[in-house]
Amino acid sequence: MPTPPGSAFLLLAARFRAHFPMKVIDHLRNAQGRTLLSFEILPPLKGKDIRSIYAGIDPLLEFKPSFINVTYHREEVIYKERGHGLLQKVRLRKRPGTIGICATIKVKYDIDTVPHLICGGFSREETEDALIEMNFLGIDNVLALRGDAIKNESHFIPERDGHAHAVDMVRQIAALNQGKYLHDEELEAAPTDLCIGAACYPEKHPEALNLNVDIAYLKQKVDAGAEYLVTQMFFDNAKYFHFVDLCREAGITVPIIPGLKPITTLKHIAFLPKTFRVDLPDAFAAELVKCRTDADVKQVGIEWAVAQSKELVERGAPCLHFYTMGRSEAVRSIAARIF
To answer: What angle (nearest 5°) sits at the alpha carbon of residue 67, between those of residues 206 and 34?
Structure first.
C-alpha cells in the first residue's frame, strides 16, 4: 500500500514529541544556580552531508549540553549571465535546513535545540509558516534575530511585508503563543508554546547610537516577550558584568547568557574584532601579537577562554554558550576544565 502523503513527516513529529522537549527558560530555572553548557553550530553547506553536524556535536556530549543552537544564514545574491548582455538576479542559500537539523539532533541525541529565525529574507507569512513547522515538530524554542544585510547591500533592507527589527518578530511569536495568527480565518487556531530568546550586545549593537540607547531597545524586546537573552561574543568579562548591571538597572530581569568564542587561528585575530565589533583586552592582545602560528594562537585562545569561563561560573553566569563555528575541538578543551 502506498504511504499517504505527509505520513513520514507525522511519524517524525510523533517520534520527536516522545522525547519531551524542554524550553531553554526551564533549563535555566531548573539549574538551581548551576552554570549550564550550550553551544551553537552551523548548518552544513548545501550539498554537504549531515555527518559534519554529528562530528561537531559528538566530542561535546560528555559535558551534557542543555541545548544546541542552529544558526540560520541569510541568502546571497548572485548575477548569472543570460547572454546578450543580460544578467539574472538569483538568490542563493548556502546553508539551508535549520529546522530540519534541529529536529534531527533532537531525535538522535535527545538534546533540546534552538533554531535561529531571522527577519531578513522572510515575509511575515513565511515567518508564521516556519513557526508552525517548529510547533508541529515539537520544537519549542526559537531565537528571534533581525539578521545581517545581504553582502552587497550597505544596510539591512527587510522583505516586503517582512519585519524590520527583531522586536517585531518577537511580537509575532508572542501573538502566535496566544493563538493570534496573521489572518482572521485562523481565529479558532490553537496557540503555540514557543520559548523566545533574543540577542544582546555587551559592547552595543554596531548600529546603536550608544550602549544606553541599545539597552532601551533591548528592553522593548523583553517587554514584547523575549524570555532570555544571549550575548554576542566578548573577550572582556568586565564589559559583560557592566552590561548585566545596566540591564538590571533598566528593569531587564530575564537571564542573560554569555556567548564565548575561543580564538584559534591567526585569521581570527583580524577577522573577529572587525566583523563582530568587539574589543580584545590589552593582556589578551599582548599575548596574541606574539603568536606566529595557528597553534600558538589556539593555545593562547583556549587559555583565555578558560579564564573567562572560570570567572563567569564563579560570578553565577546562568549558562556558558560557545560559538563553535562547526569546530568543537577547542571548546572541548575548555569544557574539560570547567564542567
So the answer is: 95
